[in-house]
Amino acid sequence: MPDEQPNKGIPRVCEQCGITFYVRCPALAKDGRGRFCGMRCVGLSQRKTLAEKLWSRVEKTDRCWIWIGVKDPSGYGDMVASGGGRRFKAHRVSWELAFGPIPPGLKVCHHCDNRACVRPDHLFLGTQLDNMRDCVSKGRQARGERLPQSKITSEIAAEMFALRALGVRQSEIARRFKVTDGAIHYLLRR
Known about the structure:
alpha+beta; Homing Intron 3 (I-Ppo) Encoded Endonuclease, Chain A; 3 domains; two-stranded antiparallel ribbon; 8 helices; 36% helix
């Protein structure tokens, strides 16, 4: 045994912080345990890097690499740095690991439109305007009756046009269909 000191134990150097400490139980020192000076250093040694956390929660398919960890209400991968506290979006971490820092004012957008995808070649940088143009060009922007809060369907709109053509006032049409006068105004003016 290396320089065992009575009442103190066997001296060791903590693998995490490098300070010298003493293992009181020779059996622990013999079979390789007693590598850390305390529970804090044990915990620190078990922490994963952000990259390790990211890739341990990704399922790679032929098309997308899907984040299978916790997702935010919008469906984006949600990560917490080791030790708790700061939160990260998984697709942003993937971008930074592959390509470097994200310049201020830019967003990480998806070519594949899969919010859970973290595959670097499915991601691109763009402004909010670029992201919205991409959304519109792919026909993903809800309009008219596809909006969840919409009260006017195509059939109702046709009925409103017919009533107006018969001379019914806008305010009466609005009251009848329980919408604002402004909604009728914009609808009739297209």
